């Protein structure tokens, strides 16, 4: 998205009353929470499926962190 888009968006939000801005911010916060819950549920389902299939990565917290950090470097 362009800077102009965000600038227009900010100006639109600033034109709202304080109460409407608060309502908008609360609505966005709740939607983000719900989206994160959906992502966590999907991740949990994928993990359970991997466990059932025997393809889940297993190890200590240190081993898993090392594995994850290794993936980031690639």
Automatic annotation (TrEMBL):
Protein name as it appears in the record: HigA protein (Antitoxin to HigB)
Protein species of origin: Microcystis aeruginosa Sj
